[in-house]
Amino acid sequence: MTPEQFKQIQTKFNQLKGKQELLQTQLADTIQNIEVGEIRLKNSKEAREIIQIVAQKTLQNLEFHISKLVTMALMAVFPNPPEFIARIEVRRNQTECDLLLKDHDVEIQPIEGFGGGVLDVVSFALRIAYWSLRKNRHTLILDEPFKFVSPDLQYKISDMIKLLAEKLNLQIIMVSHAEDINVAANKTFLCTKIEGVTKIEEI
Questions:
Q1: Tell me, what CATH number does 122's domain have?
Q2: pTM, to two decimals
Q3: 19, 120, 146, 157, 201 from 74: Cα distances, Å
């Protein structure tokens, strides 16, 4: 073997050795990246499980809060009222809430099996429940609510409104023609209009 041939072989060897070292470095980096990726994947799975548990607990608390508040409102007005159920479920990757009334162990859509009076109270209590979750203001204004509640239950409506207002620290201002809906109010004002002039007086 001539010195020239030996030199060529040595050069080729050094080139191959350099490539080998580069490949070994790349392999080590790849292995490290895989290990980091596996750790991240594991952490992500654990985080997702924690988020799912917290989300489920939050939904359960929300269901309980809404169901309890609306049922309490119904119990304050009606004898032997149905139980209100708010059931939150995930369907088609979307969170949906079923609003039901349970009467004698039978769950019914409110609009299908109950009169307007019950729906009036449920609607009002749901608005209160929604407000209690946000609490962005402490005053709620109602215009002619409870139109379908029978006159003999209007005084119970008044008691129910006061109960919820005190429980949630909420001020309710209500306009109504119903005669007995104001019996539990802290203040009542009578508005009359005579010959185009409106007169307001506390009674």
A1: 3.40.50.300
A2: 0.67
A3: 80, 10, 13, 9, 32
Give per-residue pLDDT as tens, 85-129: 988 887 887 778 888 999 888 888 888 778 888 999 999 999 888
Counted domains in the chain: 1
Buried b (16+ CB within 10 A) or exposed e, 64-83: eebbebbbbbbbbbbeebbb
In a domain, 23, yes or no: no
Give CA separation, 161 vs 95, 145, 183, in Å.
30, 11, 11
Instruction: Sheet with 94-103: list strands edge to edge.
Output: 83-91, 94-103, 106-108
pLDDT for res 120 = 92
Q: How confident is the model at residue 200 (pLDDT cuts 50, 70, 90)?
A: confident
User: 143 in a domain, yes or no?
Assistant: yes
The owner of tokens 């059931």 is 87
Residue carrying structure tokens 């119990």: 75
- Kindly tell me if the per-residue pLDDT of 153 is higher than 80: yes
Sign of CA dihedral 173, 177, 182, 188: positive
